[in-house]
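Exercise 7.
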Amino acid sequence: MTRQQPRLGKQSGIALIALLVLLIMAGAYAFYRSANISFGSTQQDAKLTLALARAKEALIAYAVIDDKRPGRMLCPDMIGDGVSPTLSRDDCDGWVSGGPDVYSGWLPWKTLDLVEPSDDHGTKFWYATSRFFGGDRSTPALNSDTLTSLHVDVPSGSPSNDVVAVIIATRGPLDTRNADGDEYYFSGTSKTSEDNDVIAVITRQELMAAVEKRVANEVKACLEQHVTSAENTSRTYPWPAPLSNSIFKGTAQSLFGMIPATQPGGNPDVDLKKSIDNLTAAQNTLTTAWANADFATAQQALATINEIAAYARAQIDRLFIVAEALYKSTKKEKTVAGVTTLVSIFSDLGDTPDNVAIAAERPLLATFQGALADSGIDVFLAELTDQNQVLAQKINDAVVTPSNTGFGALQTQINNIFRRKIYAYSFTPNPDISQAISAANVIAIDAVSKAAVAKNLSNYTTEPNITLANQAISRANDLINANTAIYNTILASRINVDTSEIRFLAQRLGILLAAYSAAPDANSLNTLAVALDGAIQSVNAISTGSTTVLAAKAAAVGALNATLPPNTNTVVNLTGVAITRTDYLATAIENNGDNVLLETLKIADSRLAQAISGSLDAATLKNTVDGVDYWATQTATYANDIARKARKRVNIATVSDSATSAYTRSGQLLASLDGSTGSIALLNDYIQAPGDISKATKAQAAVTATQTALSNTIGSASTLETILESGTAQAATVTRWYGDACAFLQPASGTPSWWTANNWKNTTFYQISDRVRPTIGKLKVNGTGAYPVVVISAGRALTLPPPINLQQRSIRETKHYLEGLNQDPSRELNDAKTPVFVFSNAPVSNTFNDRLAY
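Solution. The predicted structure, written as tokens, is:
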């Protein structure tokens, strides 16, 4: 290890930071201080008390501002120079593998920017910290739930009293009990040479109270910068991820929850293609700039590539996550002869399933349906495309070598795949798509008939057999064109916004209209007018070829336009009409049906409900079960293919990331850009010293490596995008964060930041007054204020011993995280769409440890 010098230039002194920590903690650990330092009240003792307190506050301050592991304690000084070693491995100097879980040595007072402290015997302060709160390891994650290993003033074997670190004024040699190297420390009481150590302790709760305050403040700063960013033209907060899900899926209309990894809406295929296009454009810029020795432009291009690649990697990883979930939703466990295997969800229902079996299987269909909606993946379109390619090959085979076998295969493909499965097992309320499928089915019936005639011919070289064979080929080609028409109709029917966004517009207009009606003054009228103008812009921005949605859009635009400029005599009636038509537009989008399989599963679910009640005939039930089983099988294959090209296969229990996957390639690209040996740093070094041949050589090699990694990334991502078919998704669109304050949520390097690596995302929550940031918010803390957003970083659970708490936190309820009014059940019920607007805040105690920022 090297020696870690004080970071004075960066921090303006740890003492100043310590003061800041004290201020932001606002009494967070005052509760403990009288108990933490136990000795007499003489003038010398008072001086010692102050020195220990300053050391304690400086240690906490240093831990709070740690950029990699907030809450990490400094390694002790092992050679007596007052400097903490800079970590270059998992553990601090002096720790022996297999030994007690504690690091101990002298207090690193220089690193802490303190005047060298000593006790009344002139002895340096001793310092020890729990191994789980120091070092450079990735596990355990360091957060409020991390358990400590130190014990103070308790017999060996007693439960931990939750101490993270101790600072000891030894007053001569360490007392024997404290010098034995174990995790147990004792305060002296008799002041003899063997019983005179004075100990100041840092408890886990008081350390983490300060860290939690930092976390809450950083999240709040991010949210505020995001919502006020010029790039965020709608001035909207991201929808929170309610406690009902553990995949951090932002959910429309939710007002309270976790920091969302995704937002509803968006099209994963379109989003990925955009990232590929952006990477390609940046690649062209880099190539041209490098060829022209325009190093300043090349450096900008590298920075742009870094940003795009980080976001693309997050997109690709999310695609893998939703594809894996979709694959798993199509499977269930089945045990035969003691062997457990995975089978398709409805594969064992048989031709005449009973009501009990159907009732048992129906929840599996709901899971399948939910995973499909989350992913946005369009399995119907993918299967239609794949089977159309198979059909084209069979047509070619029959043309090149006309035979009974060739025309028989053509007949089977059309009849058994298209007519009896793809068309028969599909439904959509979208009239454009439905008509296209019906038209293709009519052509398929005729094509089957003509292929059957051609199959039975004995000679393909004479008339009229040549004509009959050509008629079969011609009609099969017509079917290819009809399937292409279905494909194009589905693409044209897709919509560039999510239902929730338009529904939100209608609801917001309703709230503002009610406010105007209650107080019809100029301010409320102007607020309503601004919202109406924004709604017009949002509705006009809707892009689709769906005839039903276009009709609803035209009606909504007409009604919204009629409200402006607002006339006090007509504004209530006209705005009411506009709200109704905007809400109808949201319904039209919701029922657009461009994801045919999703609509098919909805119908299947309603039919299963009928079957359970005994009101569905056996033939329809069999068709429904067979259809779901067919689509589950196709979905599993397709989802696994997407997952494999995105990151890795999911049909095998343990498998590493694929070396050629888009995720791996984008990670290699980011690694080539990042750090002191990356192309960004090395090119900058060369720009600063253009005459340095060594630096020029290193920059050349680094940029060449980045160009190679970039080409590989674009290639792998394009391979993934080529097979990806998707529409609007509920959990596949990565949240786009605006502003530098949000860098910890979306680090440019693409590697996990302290936020993700230490699982702060699991215990941090926020609530918004409204999706659009209001000038005056509705949220109150301790009965006062009008805040637009409140952020809570939950401390460790307080109600039960920690091991039980960690298990309980797998149950996503506010009572397992928060205290006081903060744990109101309305913050978890109905996806927190109507949570209470009041919060509690108080000093840290045994009954309250939430840290708020507002």
